[in-house]
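Treating backbone geometry as a discrete language has practical consequences that deserve illustration. The amino acid sequence and the backbone structure tokens for this protein are reproduced below.
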Amino acid sequence: MTPSERIKVITGIAGRMQNEDWSIIDLTLKQYNLPYSDTWNGERFDYVVKMLEEASDTTLISLYNHLGFDEEKKDSTDIKPAFWDEGCFRLFVSHLADHKNDAVYLKNGMLKYGISCFVAHRDIEPSKEWINEIELGLKTSDALVALLRPGFHASKWTDQEIGYAMGRDLLVTSVRLGEDPYGFIGRYQAIASTDWPEIVQHLLEVLISNKKTKKNMTRAALHVLSQSNTFAEAKENMDLIEKLTYWDLENEKRIQEILDENGQVKDSWGVESRIKAFNAKWKGKTA
């Protein structure tokens, strides 16, 4: 494995194993002939990362498979939980329960751009097992954003969510709201703002441009365009299309279908010519 692949696998394993009791963590390490310690005085996630640093690629892959990541990757695209809006990009919002309004502000601002946000304290039906629903949200999301309020790192739940997402090799980004990025998420520049409309725009730019998310954001933007109900909406949604950084022949075919099927798009003044110009810009290019 490359160093990058080892980091992804190690953090994924640590994110999953940190949910276990210490006795199970050490049992697992012993069974894979990995080091363990009786004197560790820190977090479970950091402990597992330390114990795995020198592990062979073969051992890491075997442990990774033991924890179910391979099966998860096979099945997650076929799962369609009710809390995700149809056709949208799926963004898991990791936040402190005391600041759930942050996540709600973000959720409301992102939906117009085809981004459906999972907000645990809002989206989980009271009759359902909430831990299972959070795991399902993580399992089926396209990316995770961490809303870093003071105390975020101290919460074992938020750190587990980040570990799970990194184990799936998802984009993990953050918004600095009084706490600085730390650990593995500290490698990426956080959005530094407390103005929610500004945060929405910055996050939109990240999702559109990042190599891990731009393809699914293109799919979501096309869905938004297809749902245009007025000429004005079609123009506004075309603004989103023109910001995209990923395009291919399938998307060119899909936007033509939208043009043929939705009269609000086809008859909105200037939109058809903008679509043609956008396709021409990408002609012969690869995303």
